[in-house]
């Protein structure tokens, strides 16, 4: 009996020793982001989960698709399994070898340390009304899918100064000009009524005046050090509204009076964020009844139809990870070519993009993905409505369970992690 107990005792000691040695060597978890990853989008959620717990994450730029490396813990390993994210448990020796490879001056790689998770907020009318169209917003969809927490604000919260609570702001595919999307199909009756109620509550005679103050507050949030991300008409109409401050560009079908006939010549492009020298599309009332939806010549697809969404692609630029760290973070992907997708503002006319903006993705005819700095803050504008969506505006929300490897959605999530990085100034 004593011999049996002794053997059992020795077995436990040996087993404990083996487990202890294995754990001590397994110092990190590597979440690769190349073609071997089982769920690219949820991998960002794991990284954010780790940051939310005040633990750092190494973002390995251009290493196996822009991988994430974190200190090992059983909780982290469990989280990866629960979310269906593939990972590798690696030793301290492996970590040193990877970092040495990345640091080599002849390779286009770098390691960026991510710190505290950004406080994320989405500007969307779902705060005040319910519409299936708003539920198709790509950022709302991917934040929910990746299990990244966020809050919702709309006009009233912005007027109250609530943006100061957050680090990162996404603009819903909004119309900041007060024209309700320039089409009766574009917003629901509930959306329109909600905006009119807010304008009335705060003493504005017109929704366009309300939206202008909201647009200026958003610009101020960015200039003060915030991170602004906008897609589709949110990007275009924001700058149109800022340039048209004090100018009536809203036809009578929306506000009861006509457009200033000299509106185009009065635009002030010094007030805009990303675009300049654009031409307004000042339609008459009959054009709106027929379905006119373009705001300006910023939209490169205006009047050109849908095109061929199955064969057209835009490409991401290849930046120097060691020198151009910011754009390198924002273009991390496992694919360089991304299928084009549409929206009210599908893409940006190259002639209207300011020279101060950095183009990170483009097709032959347009800029799709641009970045810039404003005051102490940064902004990214991304053309199109939904990277995996279908044509039309009365569509069902995209099921991201069917698109866990979407390169178009990865660009959105790059921006979500961007504020957590200790960034270096771009040198080129």
Could you describe the 3D structure shown?
The structure is a single chain. By secondary structure, the chain is α+β, with helices and mostly antiparallel strands. The chain is 34% helix and 16% strand. The strands form two sheets. Strands 6, 7, 8, 9, 10, 11, 12, 13, 14 and 15 form a ten-stranded mixed sheet that branches. The longest helix has 24 residues, at 2-25. The chain is elongated, with a radius of gyration of 24 Å. Residues 13-24, 303-310 and 424-428 have low confidence and may be disordered.
Features:
single chain, 428 residues, alpha+beta, Rossmann fold, 2 domains, Asparagine synthetase B
Count of discrete domains: 2
End-to-end distance, in Å? 76 Å
* Poorly predicted tracts of residues: 13-24, 303-310, 424-428
CATH class bucket of the largest domain: Alpha Beta
What's the structural blueprint in terms of helices and strands?
Elements: H1 2-25, E1 28-31, H2 40-52, E2 57-61, E3 67-71, H3 74-83, E4 88-90, H4 92-103, E5 110-114, E6 120-123, H5 138-146, E7 151-153, H6 155-159, E8 168-171, H7 189-201, H8 207-223, E9 227-231, H9 232-243, H10 252-255, H11 263-266, H12 285-290, E10 313-316, H13 325-330, E11 337-339, E12 348-349, E13 358-362, E14 366-374, E15 377-382, H14 407-417
Parallel strand pairs: 6-7, 6-8, 8-9, 9-15
Antiparallel strand pairs: 1-3, 1-4, 2-3, 2-5, 10-11, 10-13, 12-14, 13-14, 14-15
Helix pairs in contact: 2-3, 2-5, 2-14, 8-9
